[in-house]
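for the writeup, i need someone to sanity check this before i put it in the appendix. the sequnce is what the collaborator sent (i think, or maybe the updated version? ugh). structure was predicted straight from it, no edits. if anything looks off just tell me and ill rerun, i have time this weekend
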Amino acid sequence: MNKLKLVFIICIAAVTGCYYDKEDLLYPAGNCDTSSSSYSSVVQPALQTYGCIGCHSGSAPSGNISLSTYENVRTYVQNGKLYGSITHTSGFVAMPQGGNKMSTCDVNKIKAWIDAGALND
């Protein structure tokens, strides 16, 4: 009976140890559609979802960086800080601080938007 319990526990541990809860592993970037990346449908919602706007808005935004409007976001696109921060590139402050890194798909969508001219659409 004790052997049966031990086998059962080992089986449960093996099954739960194989569970992936990382979006990048479940949905590789190869399945990421970047063809219709726009500010309103991709960038702004991603900034909201990952908490960027929560910290970088209002009368006293964190780091004196406001991401609450398209014009502000575009400023940080043009100087490279937005992309450098969300990709955790050396020399940039990795964002979001204390939160989960953006998924590879979301980063790829933002990069596609930047590469297309970072238009306000």
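The chain has seven helices and no strands. The mean pLDDT is 84.
thx in advance!!
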